[in-house]
Design a protein that fits this description.
Helix content: over 70%
Largest sheet: none
Number of strands: 0
Oligomer: single chain
Shape: globular
Distance between the termini: 40 Å
Order of helices and strands: HHHHHHHHH
Structural class: mainly alpha
Strand content: under 5%
Length: 189
């Protein structure tokens, strides 16, 4: 049954997705796209929408994937009520393991913060999280986001570089940059 498969998938993502939503993107992609519940194009669309909507990207993507996966897995589950059930299940299952682990770990870390083992563990985890976030960025540099035609790739790279420049150097608010990039993309593509 699709709901048990979704619960198992998001239980693994919730347990092993360290470093936040961006760090868990590669895990989400390998489990969800690998299972055939969504396409690579749909995954990149979900990431884009999850970044623009309020809330953590992992939870937003779980909600959306939980909504569409039942209908993709079995057309008999294409009813919105089945999608709503999938959304609720995936959202709860991805949050609960992290919630429990965070509560347990925070007590231990607070109690043993000054011990060399805990301090070393925390220092060692920082570069791993940065690496996971960098891998998420590389994961999203695919033909679904940048296209296959030379013109599309050049335009996509220009929009990407321009957006980065506007946020990083010009200090424009990300929502304004999203609106600008959307308008530019509308006229170019």
């Amino acid at each position: 049954m699709i709901y048990l498969k979704l619960i198992w998938a998001y239980l693994r993502i919730g347990l092993f997705g360290f470093g936040g939503g961006y760090a868990m993107l590669s895990l989400i992609e390998s489990i969800i796209v690998g299972s055939g519940w969504i396409t690579e194009q749909t995954f990149t669309d979900i990431v884009a929408i999850s970044q623009m909507t309020p809330g953590p990207i992992g939870i937003n993507s779980a909600t959306y994937i939980g909504y569409v996966a039942p209908g993709v897995a079995d057309p008999a589950f294409a009813n919105p009520l089945f999608g709503l059930l999938g959304s609720i299940l995936c959202t709860v299952v991805v949050v609960v393991p992290s919630f429990i682990l965070t509560i347990k770990a925070s007590h231990y870390i607070k109690k043993h913060r000054e011990e060399p083992f805990v301090a070393g563990m925390m220092k060692g985890m920082r570069p791993v999280v940065v690496g996971l976030i960098a891998s998420a960025a590389l994961l999203l540099m695919n033909s679904a986001n940048f296209g296959t035609e030379t013109r599309d790739v050049i335009c996509s790279i220009a929009i990407c570089a321009g957006s980065f420049s506007l946020v990083f150097w010009a200090k424009l608010h990300p929502i304004i940059v999203i609106l600008i990039a959307g308008a530019v993309g509308f006229f170019i593509f």
